[in-house]
Amino acid sequence: MSDVALLQGVRAALAHPQGHYIDGQAVTGNGDAFPVINPATGQTLAEVRAADGAQADAAMEAASAALAGWQAMPTLARGTLLLKLADALAAHREELAQLESLCSGKTLMLARMLEIEQSVAFLRYFAGWAGKISGETLDVSLPSFNGEKYTAFTRRQPVGVVVGIIPWNFSIMIAIWKLAAALVCGCTVVLKPSEFTPLTLLRVAELATGCGIPPGVINVVNGDGKTLGPRLIAHPHCAKVSFTGSVVTGQAVSQAAMAGGKRVTLELGGKNAALFLEDMEVDAIVNGIIEAGYLNQGQICAAAECFYLPVGKMDPVLAALRQRLEAMRIGSPLDEGTEMGPVANRPQYEKLLNLFAQARQEGSEIICGGYALDRDGYYIAPTAIRVTDPQATLMREETFGPVGTFIAYENDADALALINASPSGLAASVWTHDMAKALRYSEQLEAGMVWINMHTFLDPAVPFGGMKDSGIGREFGSAFIEDYTNLKSVMVRY
Ligand code: NAD
Predict the structure, then answer these.
(1) What angle separates helix 200-211 from helix 93-104, to the nearest 10 degrees?
(2) Which residue from 122, 194, 253, 343 has its CB within 8 A of the most atoms of ligand 1, so it is best to mutate?
(3) Per-residue pLDDT tens for 165-206?
(4) C or N terminus of the chain, fewer CB within 10 Å?
(5) Cα 250 to averaged position of ligand 1 atoms, centre (Å)
(6) How far separated are the first and last CA of the chain, in Å rounded?
(7) Residue 417 to residue 432: CA distance in whole angstroms
(8) What does the pLDDT read at residue 218?
(9) What is the reported pLDDT for 17?
(10) Domains in the chain, ordered, with CATH?
């Protein structure tokens, strides 16, 4: 197999320095240039000139100026524009998927399926909320002395300008979650992509303008998170921050937002567990592990990293898993036959190598992988590591890579206690044929999302978000309405 040919639009996007998208126009950055590195080669792919403070402010001003017109538009018209954007993404599926694959190392197949097709599904779902976001009428129990009557109602009003801060692992899809929820509620957005994946959202914003979404409703600014992020959050027009990323950055974002009295939603990382019960067969466990832990090189916030296996199943599962992982087709993300590409960037690559060294030092058993491939780019062999100590580093630190940590348990109540001892609680899964048991575990597992006999699947209708250190707030379902609107109460005497 070989790489697909790059489309002309992709080559054009890489050919000249990229910047930002502000008030319906592509603009060059006034700040320092930074490279976009192709993780499959380690070579510079493109250049972006960062936004300076004035450009960050200009994006916030544009979003604020666009609010009144966007809110005055009939709700169904706003929904129709989101549907048009969904169609535009679908029509530019290949171009966007290629560009994203080049920047992030995500396989082209996965970029098509998750970055584009899932984004299209989420946009259509959120478009369907247009005209359905409403308050309620309330009975009032105030006493009437002279025949006067009372009633009250609530309305949901858009919070205003939303700053969306996006990580590198799904730079289109995660941005679409925020953008679509904000826009259907009547908010406007300023999106800040990760420095590692700054290109695709510029194209999405351009497509949005082409669909008729007014200038200023969607703005994209690129640059260093540590300077640009706080600047956007502190801007007086920022009403809400919707952040997805690591726990450490999320805590800084939360403090900055709270200091300015801004609303904040945090979708953070975790150390997710998959618990396989005694009745599961070895083959089913291995399939479950691959689904839960290794998709997109493990760079999925909800992916499982710690696998709890019954003590008697551990050896046969690890033997079969090793065969499957060693047979994986690792290669260029642009080759349609590739099952696993590189990890997305150098810091991520170095972090994984350090964690492997630490695991060896702690005496953990490397079943397979645990090393970088001897080739250009940031390729890490799919890895399985057996630990015996629940306090081992790999049981606590998020790897965000193609790395499963395996620990045996004698009794599943002990495994549950260990899982719940984790400070994070984004997602967990339980695998068994005993549905009654699974449902009981779904109550007891301390995670915002619990899957039974599945893992990592997200659906726009099902709320998603973390417990404990893994976040505040929920995306999707109807839960997003709370985060993007103010609930106003109106009382009437008549
Ligand atoms: P990160 O926290 O390093 O960066 C996320 C974003 O924050 C980037 O755009 C970055 O530029 C910006 N940023 C950095 N410092 C900032 C600051 N001080 N103020 C404001 N913004 C700042 O995360 P990452 O490495 O890009 O992504 C990987 C992490 O994201 C993992 O921990 C993963 O679990 C998590 N994640 C969580 C979810 C979820 O839905 N819960 C989804 C995807 C990724």
Answers:
(1) 160
(2) 194
(3) 999 999 999 999 999 999 999 999 999 999 999 999 999 999
(4) C
(5) 7
(6) 76
(7) 18
(8) 98
(9) 87
(10) 8-269+471-493 (3.40.605.10), 272-460 (3.40.309.10)
Reported in sequence order, the residue ranges of 168-303 that DSSP labels E, i.e. its strands, are 188-192, 218-220, 238-245, 263-268, 272-276
**How many secondary structure helices (H) and strands (E) does the chain include?**
17, 22
Q: In 3D, which of 351, 386, 352 has the Cα closest to residue 366?
A: 386
With 80 as the cut, is the pLDDT of residue 1 above it?
A: no
CA distance 228 to 219: 14
Query: For residue 157, which of 186, 184, 127, 137 has the smallest C-alpha distance?
Result: 186
Decide if pLDDT at 151 tops 90: yes
363, 332 contact by CB (below 8 A)? no
Q: What is the DSSP letter of 18?
A: B
Residue nearest to atom 39 of ligand 1 (CA): 267
Predicted pLDDT of residue 252: 97
Torsion-angle region of 38 (φ positive above 0: left; ψ -120 to 50: alpha; else: beta) = beta
Residue that has been written with the tokens 């597992």 in this structure: 445
Protein residue with least CA distance to atom 26, ligand 1: 167
Take atom 11 of ligand 1 and give the residue whose Cα is closest.
225
pLDDT digits (tens, 9 = 90+) for 308-339: 999 999 999 999 999 999 999 999 999 999 99
Mean pLDDT of all residues in 374-381: 98
CA atoms within 13 A on the CB side of 296: 24
Residues 6+ apart with CB under 8 A from 394: 305, 306, 355, 358, 359, 364, 385, 387, 403, 405
Amino acid at 216: G
Q: Where does ligand 1 bind, in terms of residues with CB under 6 Å?
A: 165-169, 174, 192, 194-195, 225-226, 229-230, 244-246, 249, 252-253, 267-269, 301, 398, 400, 426, 466, 471
- Whole-angstrom Cα distance, residue 494 to residue 492? 6
Percentage of the chain modeled with pLDDT above 70: 100
